[in-house]
Amino acid sequence: MNSPVPNSSAFSELRAYFGERFSTVPDVLEQHGRDESRAERHLPDAVIFARSEDEVRRVMASASQFEIPIIPFAAGSSLEGQLIPVRGGISLDVSQMNTVLDIQPQGFLATVQAGVTYPALNRQARPHGLFFPVDPGAEASLGGMAATNASGTGAVRYGTMRDNVLSMRAVLIGGKVIQLGTQARKSSAGYDLRHLLIGSEGTLGVITELSVKLHPLPSELAVLRCHFRSVEAAAQCAASVMQAGLQPERLELMDERQMRAVNLHQGTRYPEAPTLWIELAAASRTALDEALALCAELCAAGGAGGVELARSETERQQLWQARHQAYYAARALHPGHAMLSTDLCVPLHELAPTIALTHRLCAENNLDASFVGHVGDGNFHVLFHAEPEDAATWQMIGRVYDLMVAAALAVGGTCSGEHGIGLHKRRHLRAQHGDLLELMRGIKALFDPQGLMNPGKIFEED
Amino acid sequence: MNSPVPNSSAFSELRAYFGERFSTVPDVLEQHGRDESRAERHLPDAVIFARSEDEVRRVMASASQFEIPIIPFAAGSSLEGQLIPVRGGISLDVSQMNTVLDIQPQGFLATVQAGVTYPALNRQARPHGLFFPVDPGAEASLGGMAATNASGTGAVRYGTMRDNVLSMRAVLIGGKVIQLGTQARKSSAGYDLRHLLIGSEGTLGVITELSVKLHPLPSELAVLRCHFRSVEAAAQCAASVMQAGLQPERLELMDERQMRAVNLHQGTRYPEAPTLWIELAAASRTALDEALALCAELCAAGGAGGVELARSETERQQLWQARHQAYYAARALHPGHAMLSTDLCVPLHELAPTIALTHRLCAENNLDASFVGHVGDGNFHVLFHAEPEDAATWQMIGRVYDLMVAAALAVGGTCSGEHGIGLHKRRHLRAQHGDLLELMRGIKALFDPQGLMNPGKIFEED
């Protein structure tokens, strides 16, 4: 299917209605033709900046009428090619739908338009002593985060988007508006279609509004940082912290290559060894000190060295700094290289052996890969890099990646802990959920009988 | 559609295979013809006791071939008529599939057959210092609990089945086996069909196996019990405990009528006033004492009287006793009466006003209703009762129930916090999710094109 050309009659109504917010300016198309991944680039035929659900409905009605593909877009921070208009069409940009509509401090909930970013929500929640804990990095929008079931460093304590979205409004192709979920904290009222939209990567409808859980800001916080002889030892220690029931706020790992990248990039002198960050919270200083003491014991038993502790906000930020710089440091270290970040997730008791296996696979195949991970979830990223045109290395990366996925699936894990499937992991999805693909395609056809919603994503083309 | 008679050729193969585990004994049919609700009773044509997934597949293949309705059955403890074979067919009893297959203490997970009850799982988890926190009461099976997205007193801290089921195996009509979810703690791999099966009340397939999260047993526990002048004041205090971030393990409410019922039933002398239970956990005695002190302050500020504290396991069980007896006491107080328990759930900030409104509705209509609730979730039960044949009272109860549902929906709540839809709440589901029913029916048709899975449940007949 080819979409109509932007100056055709199919677009004329939309162009007339949206005026300057209907754009075919090359820079704007370019910006909506890629995401943060190493994916091929395709331009949309047009970009529309919607400012209300009603405007989204209008676009979705026209799209159905004229069979124009729709790619929902907000912050543009997806990592698996989710936003790339592989079949052209309209990139429907909801980033201007960025109003926090309501905060109910007594109900622990906020209602926002889909284009609100999580840092923006947090700026409004914090004065109430509350915060939204899902932090995938980048300035991601809540609509996009729901669409990929995003998570990040806070998931170990507060869960993913799936655990924090109470209800949503969405527009289906053709313009029908649906309301999914409720604002109550639990519900057993029919099939939970909310969980279909969460993680649907724009293939079922356009999310326009979300009600999400807020959580009380922890009153006492501290961060421990320490390093280990091996990544496996660090992962094992992370598992032991979880097993002790310490419920860390964050539990992050970086390997020695990542630490070296940061030192080179930042001019710092961190020990270039696998490093663990453990952030703990408690209701009082006494309770926090007890937790820290237990945690330090576990680290010592796990062979940790160089234990450092930060309490004040400034100190904590300083201690976290290397972790925050990880991705950019790795990028800066290999200028001109494209990066590929995996996001496997395995059961906690399988984390250390899986990381060990992955390490070996990379070494055996001479791949220079670094590790960083939300290890309290069993989720870790391997950062690969190579020159974009270096086909041989990318082929090798692909082969090793497939082996890593197979190893994760064999121990009950998943090919994607948080990035989603997009364009890049469609074959991995087949390996993981081949028995479910027919049902998933059936559901896709129910919501989007014309196949116009973000075509080419999640499912391999027939 | 009428199902075949049990001695027809349709059943002969199954009868031959299952022998005595294919039953048409009147007592057995009777036991599978009702649940714990005040629903009409219908007998199945036959009951089959399956002992393995392979046996379930065999039944599901025959059922498709001969168009026989299938009603999955395990503990028989549903409350909304979910188990009632309104169109006859086979009650497929998986209660003998009761093996705990695997416990991974380091991975915080257990894998069980669908007929394992949560108390049985807990008996095997506790020696590892772990437990499964979803406790709907009765000796419910994990398969059935997943099918209704059950919760209970532990949900305020640990969530519902939806939050605790990592993966499932299920058999579809015709015999196909599917695997939903993974054992990893998070996944963003395609549409999350796991959440369709959870809460599907046996209308999509038969759950045969589940992997669920286990949690560390809290090391220090204490329970506060206190009473209030009004249910609204108690509910308000419950909300303030949540808002303080105390994260109680349980937070339960009973009104004065419930307390009186317990006194009459048990010969106890509890104050006959709205009563709140707050169970707190901490990693140490010091941390627990701090939390208790804050909690006691909040209770005092909320106007609580008669504050009692229990620490040892025996004392705690004693303090909880009245709460555990609630349902049976209410039942015993009105011998011969049928009971109906609602399970509305509203956002926390709407709880006290919603309870006040509900109270007024009952009083205005001279309904003798008592309240009990998992108030930390915003979830509360109103227990109605009347003689089964008293049509006028049941009509009034129905009218008041509809008004209660409308009030809950108006503030963003749900008609069912934990019991599900079954036969009784189908009209409430339409009020709540009317815009989604077409999609839900489409999904039902995808999984069960012949309409054989637990017919008549969730959806009103055409």
How far is the first residue's CA from the last residue's CA of chain A?
13 Å
How much helix is in the residues of chain A? Answer: 25-40%
* Architecture (CATH level 2) name of the largest domain in chain A: 2-Layer Sandwich
Helix-strand category of chain A: alpha+beta
Strand content of chain A: 15-25%
Biggest interface, which chains?
A-B, 94 and 96 residues
Please indicate the count of domains of chain A.
4
* Global shape of chain A: globular
Largest sheet of chain A: 8 strands, antiparallel
What are the salient characteristics of this protein?
17 helices; 462 residues; 37% helix; Alpha-Beta Plaits; Uridine Diphospho-n-acetylenolpyruvylglucosamine Reductase, domain 2; Uridine Diphospho-n-acetylenolpyruvylglucosamine Reductase, domain 3; homodimer; five-stranded antiparallel sheet; alpha+beta; 4 domains
Summarize the model shown:
The structure is a homodimer of 462-residue chains. With 462 residues, chain A is of the alpha+beta class. The first copy, chain A, is built from 17 helices and 19 strands.
Structural summary, described in words:
Chains A, B: InterPro entries: FAD-bd_oxidored_4_C, FAD-bd_PCMH, FAD-bd_PCMH-like_sf, FAD-bd_PCMH_sub2, FAD-linked_Oxase-like_C, Oxid_FAD_bind_N, Vanillyl_alc_oxidase_C-sub2. Chains A, B: It is an enzyme of class 1 (oxidoreductase). Chains A, B: GO terms for molecular function: D-lactate dehydrogenase (cytochrome) activity; D-lactate dehydrogenase (NAD+) activity; FAD binding. The structure is a homodimer of 462-residue chains. Helix content of chain A is 37%, strand content 20%. The first copy, chain A, has helices at residues 9-18, 26-31, 53-66, 118-125, 142-147, 155-158, 161-164, 194-197, 231-243, 256-266, 285-301, 313-324, 326-333, 351-364, 391-410, 426-433, 437-447, and strands spanning 22-23, 46-49, 70-73, 90-93, 100-104, 109-113, 130-131, 165-171, 177-181, 206-213, 215-216, 220-227, 250-254, 275-282, 305-310, 338-341, 344-345, 370-374, 379-386. The first copy, chain A, is globular and about 70 Å long. In chain A, a hairpin with a 4-residue loop joins β5 and β6 (109-113). The longest helix of chain A has 20 residues, at 391-410. In chain A, strands 12, 13, 14, 15, 16, 17, 18 and 19 form an eight-stranded antiparallel β-sheet that branches. In chain A, strands 5-6-10-8-9 form a five-stranded antiparallel β-sheet. The first copy, chain A, has a four-stranded mixed β-sheet with strand order 1-2-4-3. The first copy, chain A, is α+β, with helices and mostly antiparallel strands. Chain A folds into four domains: 9-95, Uridine Diphospho-n-acetylenolpyruvylglucosamine Reductase, domain 2; 105-216, Uridine Diphospho-n-acetylenolpyruvylglucosamine Reductase, domain 3, CATH 3.30.465; 220-328, Alpha-Beta Plaits, CATH 3.30.70.2190; 334-434, Alpha-Beta Plaits (2-Layer Sandwich). The first copy, chain A, is built from 17 helices and 19 strands. At the A-B interface, β9, α8, α9, α11 and α16 of A face β9, α8, β11, α9 and α11 of B.
